Amino acid sequence: MGKLVVYLKYFFIVFFVIIQTIVFKALSFVFPDTTKKIILKLGEKTTMTQNPKFKFEDWGPTFWTLNFVKAAVVHAWKNTGDKACVGGLAPNTPVLNLDGEKTDIYGFIKGRRPLVLSFGSCT
Question: Is there a contact between 105 and 92 (Cβ–Cβ < 8 Å)?
Answer without folding.
Answer: yes
